[in-house]
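Internal tracking record. Fields below are filled automatically when a chain is submitted to the structure queue. Please do not edit lines marked as system-generated. If the sequence contains nonstandard residues, flag them in the REMARKS field before resubmitting.
Queue: standard
Priority: normal
Entity type: single polypeptide chain
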Amino acid sequence: MYFSPEDQALRCESCDGLEKIEINKNNVKHAYVQSEENKLEHKKYAEENKVFKCVSCGANVVLNKLDVATKCPYCDSSITIAEDVDIGLKPDSIIPFKFGEEKAAILYKQGLKKKWFLPNVFKKTPPIDEIKGVYIPCFSFDANSHTTYRGRLARQHTSTHNGRTHTHTTYFNISGTRDFAHHDILVETSSHIDQTQFNAIKPYNIKELVVYDDAYIRGYSLEHYDQLLENCKRVANTIMENTIKSQILSSYSYSYVDSYTQNVTYSDEKFSYYIVPTYSVKYKYKDKNYLTFMNGQTGKVGDGLPKSAIKITLFVLMIIAILGAVIALFYYF
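SYSTEM-GENERATED OUTPUT FOLLOWS
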């Protein structure tokens, strides 16, 4: 039996019958401290699943005792060896795939139409050598933050006198405190997709998370997380701190930042281990191999696509021409 995204149920390969999967929405979040909770669940998960390492590309893939295929979802190598690593945490929640490979191919081609700088030939008849569904691991973080900040912002003023333009700059100091609540800051921890590629296929609808069940990964691959929880937490903190800085500065009117510092402290920190659906699309274009990722929930197509040098050049020339026209009109009037 394999998981059928269209039916959100297990489908039998022999008789085409369906077996319902009990949906459990009681998703949990753990306090970000070293604890002994769920030790039995993690032990059971380790007994039923093993981590395999692809000898060709190095991907770590989780296979359970019901899996019979051991092909790598990234390089299609059929040679994998058992990896002598702790399987670690059991996933807390999963967003199941919402469509199968046939619809993935259709959505992929539709998604390319929204991309500006693709070569026309590629856009009309995009090559697809292989589409594979892979659940990738990520950690989700929640926290409350208290921020103390100070800085100096600049505001520029332009005036014209006797036909000459003058720019005056005034500076003003800022300081204060702000409190923010951060929810579901997702940090990928895959060995084959980085945070930039992951951001390109986001967002995921977190409301569709369900409690993890092995049934959802039947027929799909699950990649084992590549980074420790502590490392992912540092990435999440950076994301939160950048958001804090952006929101604080957006409350002021200024031309540029002269200086800025902030001190952030966190409380009520929590985490969850999610696995989310992606499709990897492999193809060759002009003798070059490409790998593009697509959101397996929404169909959003990511980066990793060929670019048209002519379109990019024309776009840059158009921007230069518009800026030139604006400057010319400014000085004329």
